[in-house]
Amino acid sequence: MEQNLNANVPKVPVKKDKKDKSSSKKKIYKIIWRDAFSEVDEWHDVQSMDTEDYICETIGYLIEPNPKKNYYTIASTLTCDDHYCCLINIPKAMVISKQRIIIQ
């Protein structure tokens, strides 16, 4: 005998998708930047030091206006009422490139 597993689950009205005016106005960027990093915690001579930059790529919502004037602040999550989560502050002086991403 089969049981209806959904029999006791309350029905919740389904909201129709509405155009989210808030997040559609937010700009999404890909920023490539040089990160600060530590060498191994031991003694070095100049020849043994790493000579390459540590390059990072970050994609997310650019927060504008940004109260941190020397940084680009990127959020990975944005709510419909303009709350941000998972922020990263990238020093502008470390940016190699900044490219806007258009999602249609």
**SS class:** mainly beta
Give me the side-by-side strand order of the main sheet: 4-3-2-1-5
Span of the ends, CA to CA: 48 Å
Count of helical stretches: 1
SS strand fraction: 35-45%
Identify low-pLDDT runs.
Answer: none
Q: Whole-number average pLDDT?
A: 82
The major β-sheet equals: 5 strands, antiparallel
Instruction: Give the total of beta strands.
Output: 5
Shape: elongated
* Fraction of residues in H or I helices: under 10%
Radius of gyration from CA coordinates? 22 Å
* H and E string: HEEEEE
How would you characterize this protein structure?
By secondary structure, the chain is mainly β. It has a domain at 21-36 and 52-101. The chain has one helix at residues 21-24; strands spanning 28-35, 54-62, 71-78, 84-91, 95-101. A five-stranded antiparallel β-sheet has the order 4-3-2-1-5, with no helix packed on it. Strand 2 and strand 3 form a beta hairpin. The longest helix is centred in the first third of the chain and has 4 residues, at 21-24. The chain is elongated. The termini are far apart. 7% of the residues are buried.
Main traits of this protein?
single chain, 104 residues, mainly beta, five-stranded antiparallel beta sheet, 5 strands
Short description:
The protein is built from one helix and five strands; from the N terminus they run H-E-E-E-E-E.
